[in-house]
Amino acid sequence: NAEHSVLVAGYELYQAAPVFRTLADRMAEEPTPVVRMFLNVKRPFGETSTDNELIAAFAYRFRTQHWPPDRALPEIYFDPRSLAMDAKQRAVLHAKCVVIDGRIAFVSSANFTKAAQERNIEVGVLVRSEIVADRLVGFFAALVSTGAVRRAL
Questions:
Q1: What are 46-69's pLDDT values in tens digits?
Q2: Can you give the pLDDT at residue 28?
Q3: How far is it, in rounded angstroms, from Cα 68 to Cα 49?
Q4: Nearest 5°: CA angle at 87, between 116 and 150?
Q5: Please, what is the Cα angle at 37 between 28 and 41, to 5 degrees?
């Protein structure tokens, strides 16, 4: 039911296209909500590819495995520290939440995977509060404005 904006933060994606189909369909309607995703891009252990190669591979997987085909893509941001060569310097974007129109916030332990959505024992809290939603949106907007996260798509 998003009218203006959707913020999605998540850690793990696995065959997420069915999970994101409703959002992708909503993005195709008029008026189109602005959709920003904050997702984890990872450097597997021992991986020596360049950051740009890993980002390109992530973008390809997102488009082909996690997002319904023939749909406009959302803005996607990631934490560049997740690609650090030194594992001790590496960080992950582990937050999991959805904020709709700056009014409704869902904060959850669930990843964007079929297992998390259908089989796992997860917990989440739905909060209808402009104050809470605004704080979450502000937090992620600050990450963008300070350069703490970078655009992947």
A1: 999 999 999 999 999 999 999 999
A2: 93
A3: 27
A4: 70
A5: 130
